[in-house]
Specification:
- The structure is a single chain.
- α4 runs antiparallel to α5.
- By secondary structure, this protein is mainly α.
- The radius of gyration is 21 Å and the shape is globular.
């Protein structure tokens, strides 16, 4: 692993502390990019949906400026000041700028450095737990995907197929050889993860006439099952449901939200996935002992 970094890779392998520090810095940097993904991917999806709708209606799709994860350059949404490189250093730039745009002094959301910090901490924790191994590299990819999905779901109540489906297939491929579980458990986990929430969705809809969750939730739990096997699905579902219920009740009591207010379930599933990543062995032993 990381042999392309030789001889630096030798230092990372021999010095766990250095590896953890470097991993955390990498996590902060990727967290900065994830902020871009979280903001832009839903907009890209919306543009694509509108274009598809126009095509189905036989109408011409108007020309639009190119909008991707890298184009155009990041800019202040109010004054369109383009973000310079020194203004884009994870966490540090936010502190130096005092949380404001350098040009118009508009406040920058605190969530940007929090996403960077959250990602950095998780990536450092993965490096600490799994060390300098191939497991670490794949676990990083898993964490990156869950961070992006969590905040996209918070903002839009969507879990994009562009992330959930590759995450599912990557989990199955990873477990073909050396992974978190065997391939049989991974395949059963993917199928069971999807069908469990799919069944709950339809049962709830038949009883109440309402949709209790989205199809993206099915795919995310299927992906978690593909990564860690069917054995951990009960723990993931239980943890997600309990935390979701507690937060839902808190929002009703503290913020006066109605019982019919939509609360995204994806972030709670992601929390269950993170728990499986760090405590999967302990959870498995608990079930075996029980």
């Amino acid at each position: 692993m990381f042999e392309f970094l030789t001889p630096f890779s030798a230092l990372l392998k021999s010095e766990p502390t250095v590896f953890i520090i470097v991993s955390t810095i990498l996590g902060l940097m990727v967290g900065s990019f994830l902020n871009v993904v979280i903001h832009r991917l839903p907009i890209m999806m919306e543009r694509e949906w509108h274009a598809n709708c126009l095509e189905l209606q036989g109408k011409d799709v108007p020309e639009q400026s190119k909008y991707t994860l890298v184009t155009p350059r990041s800019a202040c949404p109010k004054c369109q000041h383009q973000i310079a490189a020194w203004e884009n250093i994870p966490v540090i730039s936010y502190l130096v700028l005092g949380g404001k745009c350098s040009a118009c002094k508009t406040k920058i959301s605190l969530r940007y450095p929090l996403v960077e910090l959250f990602t950095g901490i998780l990536i450092g924790a993965v490096a600490y737990q799994y060390g300098y191994t191939s497991l670490t590299l794949f676990a990083w990819l898993f964490v990156f995907a869950l961070v992006a999905l969590t905040f996209i779901d918070f903002d839009t109540q969507l879990l994009p197929d562009d992330i959930t489906l590759p995450l599912l297939w990557l989990g199955l491929l990873f477990n073909l050889n050396v992974g978190f579980t065997d391939i049989k458990s991974a395949v059963i986990g993917a199928v069971a993860g999807y069908l469990i929430l799919w069944s709950i969705y339809w049962l709830f809809k038949l009883v109440t006439g309402k949709e209790g969750m989205g199809y993206g939730d099915f795919k995310l739990l299927a992906a978690i099952g593909a990564w860690f096997g069917w054995q951990l699905l009960p723990a993931v579902i239980l943890l997600s449901s309990v935390v979701g219920a507690v937060i839902g009740i808190a929002l009703i009591l503290l913020k006066g939200k109605g019982r019919d207010s939509a609360i995204p379930f994806g972030p709670f599933l992601a929390l269950g996935g993170i728990a499986a990543l760090f405590y999967g062995q302990e959870l498995s032993q608990f079930y075996l002992v029980s």
